[in-house]
Automatic annotation (TrEMBL):
The gene is LOC106769683. InterPro entries: Hemopexin-like_dom_sf, Hemopexin-like_repeat. It comes from the Eukaryota. This is Albumin-2. It holds the Pfam family Hemopexin. Hemopexin repeats lie at residues 3-53, 116-163, 169-221.
Length: 240
């Protein structure tokens, strides 16, 4: 299996905008489901676009996982570290609101679970303040406000049977939920897929299209990862 092309992603508070992270770099783009995508912020170092994260594990070695909450706020994960930030889209006025703490300190329910030492990926549910967390071949749903489990830790293929016998059954590198529809993009290695889901149901989980190379469906991400990934170094603060 190829190394992750994308390490983390989260949707912006701005409609149809998403942040993608590859190690210590990121881009922001506008996506159109089933259509074209457009770069809004060129490839940059995380420490350049998110000054509040400079000198933290979220800038170096980078962000492993992230998910959005209310407004312009999001949880970021790097190794066993977690921070809650206001990412202030379109500015460099981001700030850390809580943390950095260990995942176990930020989310005590995750202590002594497979998620305590790191989370591979996550996406927001369509229901309340719930979010799906993924680690290797397992997943769990938690309420990020109460920080309690919603259900139990299960195998990916139990909750998302449409992923059985695919590269995603043993892990998901990055994912993010659509802004409006109950659908999500999943990324693994150099491939991605779009699925439809309904919380608490497995018979309503289905693919929307085929598993495809990331660069076929997201051509704007060319150069995000690998030896040709050279971040822009602006002379003035970037429009994040």
């Amino acid at each position: 299996m190829p190394d992750p092309y994308i390490n983390a992603a989260f949707r912006s508070s701005r409609e149809n905008e998403v942040y993608f992270f590859a190690k210590n770099k990121y881009v922001r783009l506008y996506y159109t489901p089933g259509g074209t995508d457009k770069i809004l912020t060129n490839l940059r170092l995380i420490s350049s676009g998110f000054p509040s994260l400079k000198g933290t594990p979220f800038a170096e070695p980078g962000i492993d996982c992230a998910f959005d909450t209310e407004g312009s706020e999001a949880y970021m994960f790097s190794g066993n570290n977690c921070a809650y930030i206001d990412y202030a889209p379109g500015t460099t006025n981001d700030k850390i609101l809580v943390g950095p703490y260990t995942i176990a300190d930020m989310f005590p329910a995750l202590n002594s679970t497979m998620f305590a030492d790191g989370i591979d990926s996550a996406f927001r549910s369509t229901r309340g303040k719930e979010v799906y967390l993924f680690k290797r071949n397992g997943y769990a749903c938690i309420d990020y406000d109460s920080k309690q489990f919603v259900g139990s830790i299960r195998k990916i293929t139990d909750g998302f049977p449409v992923l059985r016998d695919t590269i995603f059954e043993n892990g998901i590198d990055a994912c993010f939920a659509f802004h409006e529809e109950p659908e999500t993009y999943l990324f693994k290695g150099d491939k991605y897929v779009r699925i439809h889901f309904t919380p608490d149901k497995t018979d309503d989980t289905r693919r929307v299209g085929f598993i495809r190379p990331i660069l076929d469906g997201w051509p704007s991400l060319r150069g995000l990862s690998g030896p040709d990934a050279s971040p822009a170094m602006p002379s003035k603060p970037p429009n994040k």
